[in-house]
Amino acid sequence: MDIKKETMSNTPFISEEIVLYLYWIEERERIRLKKEDAEADPPWTEDEIFKKFKFCQVFREDDRTTRWFAAHIRRPLSAEPEVAMATIIFRFFNLIETGRTLLDHNLHLEWDREKAIEEISKQPKWVTGAYIVKTPNRMNKVKGVAECVSHIWSKREQLLAALERMTTLEEAWSFLMQYPYIGPFVSYEIVTDLRHTYLLNEATDIRTWGNPGPGAMRGLNRLTGRPLDFTRKTHDWHTEMRILYDICQEELTVPGMTTDSPYYRMPFEMREVEGGLCEFDKYSRIYKGEGRTRSVYDYSNREMPLIEDLHKGESKWVNSNNT
After folding, report:
1. Which domain holds residue 190?
2. Rounded CA gap, 270 and 301, in Å?
3. What are the phi and psi torsion angles at 57 (to 5°)?
4. pLDDT at 35
5. What is the DSSP string of 167-187?
6. Are 46 and 93 within one domain?
7. What angle do CA 141, 188, 278 make, to 5 degrees?
8. Where are the extended beta strands (E) located within 9-108?
9. Most CB within 10 Å of its CB: which of 56, 131, 186, 280?
């Protein structure tokens, strides 16, 4: 990939690293296109790293759990006040199987702590393995999450009133963290979903703000040549992400990623920049022989969700909880 010289002028980034970052985005999206649109057989790429290791989707809206949640809960409620608590409840668990239980017993709309504990406890797994869900000590995870949700549920009217006044993602993200056990990561997940509802779909910072977590910081460190463990909170991470967003808008060429493409599906936003930085860091770590990731493909297991496509929000494959 050749990058226009003017694109890199007055940026803090190393050209070779930007090329690798853009390559990760485009090749990962090409893989999705081959898997879903063409329904081709694996491995969908000649890249040995992509053949062996799993990476998150380029678009957060394409991840398996988000697709299920959007189809069954978020979109049906997107114009309704109930979408705020339904989103918070689901993202505390962040598991499709638990989402089905919530729907079956209407718990996403009429929360009942004891009923939730009773029904969700029947499942072999209760919460996501994609990120750590913190809950009160000396409780198992389902009881701990139920306790957290119940606390927020008791304040749901005040929460909704506050969210309806907010005009930025960042403001909503900061606000949600006042509730016990909603940290920066979970708050970011909730806000990213609410961005697609009446509450935040007109937020003024959709293309200018993201929450740079540790993985995104490492990705930016790679792009700038800083030490990988640099994590100073006062550093202007957001300006670097905004510059990177502009580069992506200028340089990405995969069909469907630009608004003038006949294959265009959804906007490439700051959430994609932030998430892509984290995955780029993983890819670069392997590419440079510095380490590896835990998630690998097993093509011999035909029960694995090798095809990402969902039919009406449900997986074509047996295990629908993988991303």
Report:
1. 79-194
2. 35
3. -65, 155
4. 83
5. --HHHHHHHHTTSTT--HHHH
6. no
7. 95
8. none
9. 280
Residue 151 and residue 110 share a domain: yes
Question: Which of 162, 194, 226 delimits the end of a domain?
Answer: 194
What 3-state class would DSSP assign to 5? Answer: helix
Helix axes 141-153, 83-93, angle to 10 degrees: 160
pTM: 0.88
39 and 88 both lie in a single domain: no
> What average pLDDT values come out for the chain (323 residues) when binned by 10 residues?
62 93 94 80 89 92 92 97 98 94 97 97 88 82 95 98 98 97 95 98 96 96 97 96 93 77 81 96 95 73 43 46 40
- The answer to whether position 61 is within a domain reads no
What is the separation, in whole angstroms, between the first and last Cα of the chain?
28
3-state class of 314 per DSSP? strand
Statement to judge: residues 94 and 190 lie in one domain? yes
83 in the same domain as 43: no
Question: In whole angstroms, what is the distance from residue 207 CA to residue 11 CA?
Answer: 18
**Residue 300 and residue 219 share a domain:** yes
Task: Give strand pairing partners of 47.
Answer: none
Q: How far, CA to CA in Å, does 217 sit from each of 8, 58, 276?
A: 20, 17, 11
Residue 283 lies in a domain: yes
Place of tokens 């050209």: 15
Q: How many domains does the chain have?
A: 2
* Beta-ladder partners of 53: 296
Question: DSSP letter string over 83-136?
Answer: HHHHHHHHHHH--HHHHHHHHHTTTTTS--HHHHHHHHTTSS--S-SSS-----
Q: Which of 5, 15, 6, 10 is nearest to 225 (CA)?
A: 15
Does residue 43 have a cis peptide bond before it, meaning omega lies within 30 degrees of 0? Answer: yes
- Does 284 fall in a domain? yes
The pLDDT, as a whole number, for residue 199 is: 98
Write the single-letter amino acid at 283: Y
Helix (H) or strand (E) holding 311: strand 310-311
Q: 8: closest CA among 222, 244, 237, 203?
A: 244
